[in-house]
Amino acid sequence: MVGTMKANRVVAGLIGPLLACSVFLLKAQPNEDTATRSVQGIVSDVGGNAVAGAIVQLKDTKSLQIRSYRTGADGAYHFAGLSTNTEYELEARHEDATSAKKTLSVFNTRKAVTVNLKLNK
Hints:
22% of the residues lie in helices and 37% in strands. The strands form 2 sheets. Strands 2, 3, 5, 6 and 7 form a 5-stranded antiparallel sheet that branches. Strands 1, 4, 8 and 9 form a 4-stranded mixed sheet that branches. The protein is built from 1 helix and 9 strands; from the N terminus they run αβββββββββ. It has 2 domains: 1-31; 36-118, Carboxypeptidase-like, regulatory domain (Immunoglobulin-like, Sandwich). β5 and β6 (97-98) form a beta hairpin. It is α+β, with helices and mostly antiparallel strands and 121 residues long.
């Protein structure tokens, strides 16, 4: 009986720290949304200079919905919350210059994708 009580205390003494470690490990895992991704990049002119005020359009090729972003002084744009199951087309415009269309493919599995756009004039 005394041996059993000792064994119970040892087990009870181990359970607390084990539970605390398991709770810590569960909380330490990132809460990542596997169904979304983002795309960002820089719009530049033919000389490689960032273009402020360019309009970047992101077209959902399934729904044909278009989202727009106006670049700041650094020429940067960013779209978040994009479906991993949808292809998107990206294009930039500024005054009379446009970029080539680029596709964000469903086969690109990265969560954060960089697509830089270069204007043709």
